[in-house]
Amino acid sequence: MKTFCIMIHPGNWGVVRRRGADGRIPVRTLDRGASSSAAAAEPTGYPGGPYDTSLLVKYEHHVARHIWFGEERGPKKELKVAGHGLKLTSRVPLALPPQMESWVSRSGLASLQRTSLNKIDTNLVSAFVERWHLETSSFHMPFGEMSITLDDVACLLHLPIRGIFWSPQDVTEELAVELAVDYLGVSQGQAQSHVRSCRGSYYKLEWLYDIFVHHKAASSWAYATRAYLLMLVGSTIFTDKTFTLVEARYLLLFRDLDGCSGYSWGAVALVTLYRYLGDASMYSCKQLGGYPTLLQCWIHEYFPTVGKRGENWNPAGNCGLPRAMRWSYRQGVLKVDDLRPILDELTPTDVIWRPFEDHRAWRVFDEICLYRGCLKWGETVVPYLPDRCLRQFGYRQYVPSPPLDCMMGTDIDVDWISYHQSVVDVIGSSSVATTPSEVEDGYLEWYYRVSHPRLVPPHRDAPREVPLPVYDAGSSDPDWARVSTLIRRYLRQVNAEEEDPQFSDLFEALHISRSH
To answer: Which pLDDT score is estimated for 500?
Structure first.
């Protein structure tokens, strides 16, 4: 594939303005853009974007702003990532007693017993976190936005996405002790001693596992099941940056073991991960919480040529297992600063835009995944904006509406229940894509004004404007598209020219792969 470039300049696109001490470029005029109507506000721009700062309002504190100028988070460029896969392998039994299995199965959480990667590729995960923007709940790639959607969660983890949200009550240390006594079957003294050692309203995951083992041996099935489920969610979708604790208030979710299936566990996983991605995208943050397996397996599904991974089975041979179980950890050789330019050079044909179409026999697409609104879990509220990543749903991408302000006084529970109108609004402005990566005219021009789609300047000594790429459609067959991607990547690595006879066969193979 050949890439044609149009140079975009900040400001009025005809004048390159002088950069201030903070790296900003004053912008005096605004052209087209869907993210703001307040031209009089005179936003400031940054080298490499965003030139119109009305969308990414927190960009000043974003890690991408610093990376552009060669400033790293610290001596370690990658994030510290909490992964419990190896511990879960030893803590999750091959089979639960039937008395427990029934409760765990009905809870909707049973799939989490087997989905975790043993280890996490922290460099790969960190490279994608650097492209996350909390204002839009999306990764800003060179060719537009992408995100982890409710459909991705349903297919990767087999968690239910329909259900209610949860509004928690405050849990003091005293109440954490009472909850442990009432619902985990431990003594008052043991509970007090443990909560005190946690220095807050928390339980240690290892302690919960020990309680599970004790009560299982004593056939105290309700206590054992609650300890097991709390340990399970604390090691997966509720993983926090302590790496060893889970909040005591989550035990309230399992008071009624017959009623905990009513929650939207898929939304839980997404809200928690979105929250931690937003934190970790800031320059001052050095850790990532949430369920990293969900993020890494999402990368494996959508970006087949990025990162190293093991494949346990081919999707065609799947027998209904969660798609996260398709993947296994393989140690990568690329560091985060090696991956940045690779991600910068990705094109739409490097993406498998709809990776789960061969999984629909086990997870039918649910239209609620196109709900546009806010998701909440406890006090955490995040925007969920499928109109920013329509290509992942098979629709042509248009310039999306400004992101939602989730702090406004809307009733999120009501919006969630009456989701249908928002789905109509999302897809009513689009049409089914004729090619997997189709966008409307003007989308990329708008995107390159309001985003920072590349992390590494094209040339360190050159003026820091970013060229706007124009992509051809590429191959419609995913296998041929991957062949094209691999050939093209090699040719870029060796700086090959099409006129060079040494590479003529490879260029011919590239043209053949693009025609299929």
So the answer is: 79
Neighbour count for residue 458 (Cβ, 10 Å): 15
In this structure, the strands spanning 132-133 and 80-81 are: unpaired
Dist. CA 128–CA 339, nearest whole Å: 9
Q: What's the gap between Cα 476 and its chain centre? A: 26
- Position 12 pLDDT exceeds 50: no
Q: Label the pairing between strands 132-133 and 138-141.
A: antiparallel
Identify whether the C-beta of residue 9 lies closer than 8 Å to the C-beta of residue 16: yes
d(CA 168, CA 162): 19
Q: 1-13: b or e for each residue (b if 16 or more CB lie within 10 Å)?
A: beeeeeebbbbee
Rg over CA atoms, the chain: 24
Dist CA 505 CA 514 (whole Å)? 14
* Residue 200 Cα distances to 88, 195, 235, 451, angstroms: 24, 7, 18, 40
Rounded Cα distance, 52 and 42, in Å? 9
| Strand intervals (E) in 121-251 | 132-133, 138-141, 144-146, 202-204, 245-247
Say if residues 170 and 201 touch (Cβ distance below 8 Å). no
The CA distance from 412 to 404, in Å, is: 12
DSSP 282-335: BTT--EE-S-HHHHHHHHHHH-TTSS-EEESS-GGG--S--GGGGEEE------
**Residue 311, pLDDT above cutoff 60:** yes
Q: How many residues does the chain have?
A: 516
Question: How many alpha carbons fall within 13 Å on the CB side of residue 139?
Answer: 24
Question: Phi and psi of 9, rounded to 5°?
Answer: -110, 150
In the numeric block, the tokens 């996490």 are attached to 120
What's the CA gap between 45 and 323, in Å, rounded? 41
Tens digits of per-residue pLDDT, 94-150? 999 999 999 999 999 999 999 999 999 999 999 999 999 999 999 999 999 999 999
pLDDT of residue 504: 80
Taking the alpha carbons at both ends of the chain, their separation in whole angstroms is 13
Q: In a 3-state reduction of DSSP, which class is residue 45? A: strand
Region of 132 on the Ramachandran plot (φ > 0 left; ψ -120 to 50 alpha; else beta): beta
> 202 — phi, psi (to 5°)?
-135, 165
Q: Which H or E run contains 383?
A: strand 380-384
Cα–Cα distance measured from residue 157 to residue 393, given in angstroms and rounded to the nearest whole number = 18
